[in-house]
Amino acid sequence: MDLNFLHRFEQYATMSRLLLYRNTFDAPTGELAVGQINLASALQYVVEHHTLAPSQYIQPRELFVVENQLRGSTTNPHINMVGIGSQFVIMGNDMGTAQQHTLRLYNLNKGFIAHNALRGRSSDGIRHALKIHSGGLGAYNDNYGISGSTWASRQIVIANNRLGDATDNNSFTGGAAPQNNGPDSREGLEDVVLENNVFHRGPNTNTEFILMGRRMSSRGNTRADGGVPNINQFGNSYQLLPAEWVGPFYY
C-alpha cells in the first residue's frame, strides 16, 4: 500500500490473499509490459512449460485491487490492468490510458467490480475500458489440475462505476462477452449483473456495453449526457457459443 510504482506490479503465475491498496502506477517506459498490474496472465503457460504437475497449482483467488491510480500511456505496449482469478474485487480505482484495453480480465469467478473510474483511451480506438471474457465453457475449481484454464466466467457484479470519458477514442466502452469471433473464442459467461453504472461517451462512442452469455442482467445504468445507453447482445458477431449459452437476458 501507498507505493509509487515506476513500472509495474506483476505476479504472472498464481497467488492468493493479495491486497494492492492505494498505490500509484506511472506509465512504463523503455520496456514491454503486459500490464501495469498483471495478475496471473501467464498461469497457463507456466503450468504447461514447467515440471510441477498441474494439480500442484492453485487458481489465483482472494484478490483485492483497491483505490489505486494508474497513469498509463497510449504509446507504450501495455494494458492498465490484466488478470485472472476467483473472489476478485476491483474497487475504487482510477485508470484509463493504455495502448490496449484499460482493464482486461481473461477469466473471472465471483468477481466484484465497483466504484471505479475506467476510461478508455487507447492507441487505435478499437479497445475497451472494461473487457471480461473467459477460458471456455468448463466449471471452476480452485485446483488448476481439475479445471485448468478452460473455465467459464461466472457470478460477476459490475456496479456503480464511471465507465468511459469525453476524451475516449474507442467506439465500444465495455463488454462481458467472448473476446472475438475467432476459433479461440468459444468462451462462456453466466450470471453477470451490470447495474447503476454511469457511461460517459467520447466522440466515437456508439455502444456502451456488450453482454453475451446466459443469465445476463442490466439495470439502472445511465448515460451522463442523458441519452439511453446502448447495451446489447451483439449476437451476430459471436456464433461459436452453444445455444444454451446464449441468453436469457434481463433488461
Description:
This protein has helices at 43-49, 144-147; strands spanning 4-5, 9-11, 16-21, 24-25, 35-39, 61-66, 69-70, 79-91, 94-97, 103-114, 117-121, 130-132, 153-159, 162-164, 172-176, 189-195, 198-200, 207-211, 214-219, 222-223, 231-232, 249-250. With 251 residues, the chain is mainly beta. The chain has one domain (4-250). The chain is globular, with a radius of gyration of 17 Å. The strands form 3 sheets. Strands 2, 3, 5, 6, 8, 10, 12, 13, 15, 16, 18, 19, 21 and 22 form a 14-stranded parallel sheet that branches. A 5-stranded parallel sheet has the order 9-11-14-17-20, with no helix packed on it. The chain contains 2 helices and 22 strands.
Gist?
The protein contains 2 helices and 22 strands. With 251 residues, the protein is mainly beta. The longest helix has 7 residues, at 43-49.
Profile the largest sheet: 14 strands, parallel
Give the end-to-end Cα distance, rounded to a whole number of Å: 39 Å
Give helix % range: under 10%
What structural class do the secondary elements suggest?
mainly beta
Counted by DSSP, the helix tally is 2
Mean pLDDT rating: 92
Oligomer status: single chain
Radius of gyration: 17 Å
Domain count: 1
**Low-pLDDT segments, ≥5 res:** none
The percent range for strand residues is 35-45%
